[in-house]
Amino acid sequence: MTTTPSGAAGTQHGAAQSADLNALLFPTRDPNLEVVTSSRLTRVGARPPFATYLRMIWQRRHFLWAEARAKVASGSRETLLGQAWLVLTPVLDGLVFFVMFGLVLRANQGVENFVGFLLIGVFLFGFASRCITNGSNAISAGKNLIKAFQFPRASLPIAVVLREVLNLGITLLALGLLLLAIPPTENWTWRVALIVPTLALLIVFVTGIALFMARLCAAVPDIHRVISLVMRMLMWGSGVMFPLTRFENQPGLLAVVRANPLFIAIDMTRAAVLHGVTPPPSQWLAMTAWAVGTFTIGLVFFWHAEESYGRA
Amino acid sequence: MDAPDDPFATATVAVQNVHVRYKTPSVDAAERRRGSLARRVAQRVMQREPQVVVRALSGISFVARSGEQIGIVGQNGSGKSTLLRIIAGLERPARGQVLAEATPILVGVNAALIPDLSGVQNVHLGCLAMGMSPAEAEASAPDVIDLARLGKSIYLPMKTYSSGMGARLRFAIATAARPRILLIDEALATGDAAFKERSEARMQRMRDEAGTVFLVSHAAQTIEETCTRAIWLNYGRLVLDGPAADVALRYRKWAWAIAKDKPDEAKRLIEAAFAERRETYVRVDEPMPHRGYRPRHAPPSHAKHPALPSSTKPNRSER
Question: Which residues contact A232 (CB under 8 A, 6 or more apart)?
């Protein structure tokens, strides 16, 4: 196998050779054949195998963490109180609910400690909803990053979820303060610690959904417009504002809500925090199945279109 | 290192017959009149402009070697930046492929740094984004800060930087990972004279370490002074690929003719360049995958193998 080196030498060499019969017969100059071997050169931007892809995401964990922290902190940089707003916002949110439902309306929907019930629902659902809505928009929001760096694109939806997880941690702190301050106060048991595995499953679940929707929205941006609508509908189907007793005379609807992973996660958290009981094994099983299944499908689905996101 | 006489050893980037097209809406009235009646009605109802196809690159082929600094010249909109993005693997070509020895690093005009964070924090974040570990990022920070040489400004938020200061920091971050292949998109045009010298020294060091640098600029003089080879693009076509001095000089003459409104002379110059170009065909040899077994009745030679992988894609330009 012979090659002609390109550049100055190659051009002059070619010029000297072109005076042969071939060049006389055909006016075009003889082409310059370059041979490269694919054992040394690999295609740029090629989608790596799935296992390599996972490893690449794992290698970026420091970047994802640092970026999420920077973004969370920079969100309140312009304000006078700065990072205090990170805690103040959920506390004030919760106080509004307490004043409205606990003092003004005195609504309890047949639930004792309705304010606690409501706050857990609103905060957890808000977290899941933001993860899914912002995560699905991650590709178009991260256009600048995509155009500047070569990295596994799944990092973008994952970074969005990570950012929300940091916010959730602060929100939970505020929630704990509120539950301690607002009557009736709960008698806390060790079972409060059960919210850690519950939330872990919820986080894995929303990451899967975010990855899945991110690919869909990158292909058809119109879908993003519909997501917030769907999330609002889902809110009524997740038992955020009222207990399941509302659905008692509609067994079909009740079954659907009971299978809803967002409802399961919220219900498990309420059981552990407000009622001091361990959630039943059926809920643990269902939540694990939802989390593992959605995450696997979402990641594989996202990875499959890895090369197409540069066009978004 | 590889043996110097191995013809495969020096290629760092191979661009094989790359075509890039963009579909984009156009408000051109002539475009609106084209197409079927149903389509025109649909466009009118949905308030959408007709889509046109823009050919950003057509049939680009070349092979870059280690130690080369390749300048890419051409007027605005000739496909220079698109070519860099394709080489960096940030976009997928409609046809053809780009092979590279290592992940190319693009120093873009709008690289993603967080404007609210200080320069120091952005250096750390940028190093992590390129895949360094926190320890490696920590270790390379002094080097980056020294190259950018922003003084006390490095502690200020990046949104307070001038465009030149931002460009210096981005260049410094991009070279921190010691990339084998560096792609620079007009980044150095905004730096001042002192920084220009330091950045050129840095690029020289990279080439000495057998790397390859691509430099996009429409200032042909920069290309002439710093590059070893140049590629002239015009409307997505490769006009000429050769020694930097020659190509840049021809481009400057052509650009001068365009600027002085002498279309005939410009046409003559560009056609002369087209005629002198040698077309490049890039063939990718795929080594036979090892099968782990040998058929018992197969002869010991490679006679049974298919002749050659047919990945040769000729690069024909229609003139």
Answer: none
